[in-house]
Amino acid sequence: MNGGLVQILDGNTFVVSDSRGDIEASLTDPTGLFSFDSRFLSSWILTVNAQRLNPLSVDDLQYFEARFFLVPGTGTVYVDSKLSVIRRRAVGDGFHEELTILNHDEKPADLKVRIDAASDFADLFEVKDALEKKGKYSTQVRNGSLHLRYERETYKRQTTISASAPAKLDRKGLTFDVHVEPHASWTTDLDVVTAAGAGGTYIRPKYERGERRARPNMERSLERWLEDAPRLECDWDPLKVTYRRSLVDLAALRFAPPISGGRSLPAAGLPWFMTMFGRDSIFTSLQALPFTPELAATTIQALGDWQGSRVDDFRDEDPGRILHEMRYGEMTAFEERPHSPYYGAADATPLYVVLLDEYERWTGDRKLVRAFEREARAALSWIDDYADLMGNGYISYQRRNEQTGLENQCWKDSWDSISYRDGRIPGFPRATCELQGYAYDAKVRGARLAREIWKDPAFADGLERQAADLKRRFNRDFWVADGEYFALGLDNEGKQIDALASNNGHLLWSGIVDKSKAKSVARHLMGPRLFSGWGVRTLAEGEGRYNPIGYHVGTVWPFDCSFIAWGLRRYGFKDEAAVIAAGILDAAEFFDGRLPEAFGGYERGVTKYPVQYPTACSPQAWSTGTPLLLLRTMLGLEPQGDHLIVDPALAENIGLLALLDIPGRWGRVDAFARGRVEVAPELRRRAPA
Amino acid sequence: MDATTQFFEELGTRGHEPLLEKATGTIRFELTNGKRKARWLVTVEKGDVTVSHGNARADCVTRGDQAVFEQIVTGEENAMAAVLRGAVAVEGKPELLVHFQRLFPGPRRS
């Protein structure tokens, strides 16, 4: 639930309603039935004898199913408590609702039950930006169904509503004349079916082809999903709650793009970002690799199939580039937005190669690595041929679509995320530091794949030479000597964008940092300017733009911290990684195990509570993946050949920790650990005084 | 010769197309121009491509106005946007078209 709203979803079809189960959307109000980035119902209001209902309780049975318990009447005085109403709703190619009315009275009840229905067919982008529609609406009652339609040239969308019980249909909804005997009940099934049209016909949803009703499309049940994941045993109960929450949310975030043969990859966030995002899908797949490696396989395939193949300025597409975001709505269809797909990300392409290599290290799936050799080579070529905008040997970015493209094409994508110490904002192109780390890692890992799997030692040698040269130059050009950390980036004149930011942690993860510099980088990450006690701030306290509740300029992002912890481990800072893991997992406890996208950068000792940054999306994929990656770093899990190395370092309070049946090229193995890292007492949560 | 004919005829001469190496199957393109219908049948076997006018059963059928295809094969129109808009209809396996659309050129740059 989110601000009193109830969300259920299946892939990219979702319903957001109020706690009565009603949908009452305005152009700017985000409730409705959505599918493929369009709203198919903006109104769905239940009345009994012309009265709205009161919610007693809501059960989120599953992520795709909810049940609403209601009574007639408004306000606090129940007009008629002799009736109960239950709406049980499941989503899938629209939704199915079972509406039941129970008569608790000794007398029969005669009721007028009404559902008002309408759709504005808004594009998700229109919901966000409150834009006007350009097409025509029509409604029709035919063959016992109510059809709501929207048409703009060849673009057609339709919602079809029908009921199992006898109903009077009109163009604004359905009316039931209901007679319920004493202590008896009345029920009807309601089906709301979404359809997209092309060339005069509509693509029929599956349950018009034999399936009786809307049901979830996901290929595996939640139970199977949970059973297949490693089992966690632990002395510290909150970690068990967080772990289970992560697995359940990750299941909900699975998204099967139309071309993946029904297999799923992690979408970015629920519900507004239930689509393929290059960066988010890759980071989440990396986090989840030790737990659910099949997500990585689908991500590699789907992103590979959509890899850029031409130069297209509107979409910021280049040959070899990995997509940023795919959308299916009306504005994308009419090229008022570039998301068909949009390619404006500078990090997804090198990260694609990183994921391919890490996937093989865990699973030993050489077949997939061979199958995607061409895509991996194209991604590596993109780094040199298309991403070096300044000709200085570094990846930098500058959008070519100046109307609707993205300004900042790194994960910190808000307008003010990249700044100098004094708060000034640099010009374009910008070469942020973590991009160089990813490029380095992609070349090193690409070389391994070339040598061991593609059997091309000359290519491998070349990549290794390039990587070594990049590392040497990077450690010279990005090192802020008077601060002893790496600059946030280089500006359009090749000068350092000298603010201290969390990006330094991603550099450790990539391996681009000279050993001699790692200690001071780690000291900054764990120092008071960056480390809040909960996690690492996106921007250091004291920088010109620092703001503890600024989106990318001071908040703590759990996902960011999980990769920083991985980076610290990579350079041998085991205890430091454990302290960050402890902080983030402590924070998770405040959110019942569901980490938000970001929380405030306030000092832990001051607020005693991680202040959530208000965003619409929850759960968010890479926040959901964070506890999984933290488990990996705490246990020190590292594939080595056909074995899994376990080298734990975790906070004392966690006690005994066991992760059982970790899947990989070794089959299934168990990892055991005991907490021994002391976390400074002032960082631990204390009861409010 | 129209641009669509040129595109398919040129494709037929390639023999092997690396961008289609993960695709196997047949795509039939049905192009409407008033009352006339032009058909192109593209058979892909792990990147090996043959092009004909045949009317065999296809794994993926793509239909639309000749005018829209003229724009797609010259890079003035994006194939995916045309599909989302309903200007091009796809039946059967859409993944074949996802692979195939990589062959269309980008827009001419000003």
Could you characterize the architecture of this molecule?
The complex is a heterodimer of chains A (689) and B (110). The longest helix of chain A is centred in the C-terminal third of the chain and has 21 residues, at 457-477. Chain A has three domains: 6-208, Beta-galactosidase, Chain A, domain 5, CATH 2.70.98; 219-252 and 518-689, no CATH class; 275-499, Glycosyltransferase (Alpha/alpha barrel), CATH 1.50.10.10. In chain A, β7 (53-62) and β8 form a beta hairpin. Chain A has 18 helices and 30 strands. Chain A starts with 5 loop residues before the first strand and ends in a 15-residue tail after the last strand. Residues 203-214 and 685-689 of chain A have low confidence and may be disordered. With 689 residues, chain A is α+β, with helices and mostly antiparallel strands. In chain A, strands 7, 8, 9, 10, 12, 13, 14, 17 and 18 form a nine-stranded antiparallel beta sheet that branches. Chain B is of the alpha+beta class and 110 residues long. Chain B has a single domain, classed as Nonspecific Lipid-transfer Protein, Chain A (2-Layer Sandwich). Helix content of chain B is 31%, strand content 33%. Chain B contains four helices and five strands; from the N terminus they run αββββααβα. Chain B has helices at 3-14, 66-73, 79-85, 94-100; strands at 24-33, 36-45, 48-52, 60-65, 88-92. Chain B has a five-stranded mixed beta sheet with strand order 3-2-1-4-5. In chain B, a hairpin with a 2-residue loop joins β2 and β3. The model of chain B has no long low-confidence stretch (mean pLDDT 92). Chains A and B meet through β17 of A and α3, β5 and α4 of B.
